[in-house]
Amino acid sequence: MSSKVIGFISEKGGVGKTTACYHIAIALERYYKKKVLVIDTDYQRGGITCKLIPSLMENFQKGEIPYKNIYHKFQNLYADSEININLEIQKGKFNIDIIPSDPKLNRVSVDKLPGERDVSKLSLNRYKHLSVIKNAIIPYIYEYDYILIDTHPEISDLLDCVIYACDYCVSPVKLDRQSSVGVASAVEAINNVNKNVEQLSRVLSITNAKKTDFLGAIVMMAREYSEELIYTMQQEKSQLNMFGVFDNYVTEGDGIRIAARSYVPVYDVEGENADKQSKQFKSLTREFIRKCV
Fold first, then answer.
1. Helix (H, G, I), strand (E, B) or coil at 287
2. 19-56 pLDDT tens trace
3. Topology of domain 4-291, CATH
4. What is the sign of the dihedral through the CA atoms of 24, 28, 30 and 32?
5. Residue 291: phi, psi to the nearest 5?
6. Of 26, 22, 9, nearest to 49 (Cα)?
7. pTM of the full predicted structure?
């Protein structure tokens, strides 16, 4: 059976996107014995790269990632090179494989494609660009149960490529009005990619292009009173039902912050709040597996 490929996307930063991807990846491997590959495309923060390979922090800050990664696949396309580049998968902490991010991913743009007047050639080039990540992971889809892709908080040509590579996308969210708007933007981005792929498929007579589905919003940093979401957050969560929202959520607390300082998941931290957040992430991962059918 081939991998399930899931993107963690949001145009809003600070909503717990990397935290969700990181903890779900570890839970899948540790508690459900799944083989997981993480692909990091967050070129500005490199958060999950440095969580799983802390030694790369200095490399990332200098913009000198020593491994072939997704950026090199785009660079190959822009150079119109026939040389095959193999991605260099690294063994991260907690038995999670990872393709590290690269600060140069901020250069990804369809504007770098060769200029074409012919509509068919232009469409083909755009489809090749959209397919870079999808094609890059083809050699690995029978090696892993799950491939999780973390992203930069934006709507961009790079995000379009992530979306097209995915079977599903989720959108982590804080339950406030500003962050909740990010879910609508994520869904719109998925719909736009699906429409674009449909149009390109007609022009290029492509028959095997698949749509990307939205699995739902994942609520992070929620606040409770008497083990229930506070009223205003209940209202915000109910409004997300029009897009789809996970039943399980993760509450605010020091457990995750303490874990982050030590470059470990909250599962490895002691304390009442850490125990609570650990249980929440385990329940969230169980629901995540159930939804990825």
1. helix
2. 999 999 999 999 999 999 999 999 987 789 999 999 99
3. Rossmann fold (3.40.50)
4. positive
5. -75, -30
6. 22
7. 0.96
Residue pair 21/48 in contact by the 8 Å Cβ criterion: yes
Joined together, the tokens standing for residue 228 give: 């229930």
What the block records as the tokens of 74 is 């785009």
Cβ–Cβ < 8 Å for 217, 171: yes
Contact assessment for residue 67 and residue 90, using Cβ atoms and an 8 Å cutoff: yes
Q: What is the pLDDT of residues 242-285, one digit of tens each?
A: 999 999 999 999 999 999 999 999 999 999 999 999 999 999 99
Of 210, 284, 291, which Cα lies nearest the Cα of 244? 291
Helix (H) or strand (E) holding 149: strand 146-150
Closest to 37 in 3D by CA, of 193, 116, 141, 166: 141
Half-sphere exposure of 255 (CA within 13 A, CB side): 24
For tokens 């009173």, name the residue: 225
Exposure class string for 174-189: b at 16+ Cβ within 10 A, else e: bbeeebbebbbbbbeb
Q: Distances from the Cα of 173 to the Cαs of 165, 186, 248, 283, in angstroms?
A: 22, 11, 13, 17
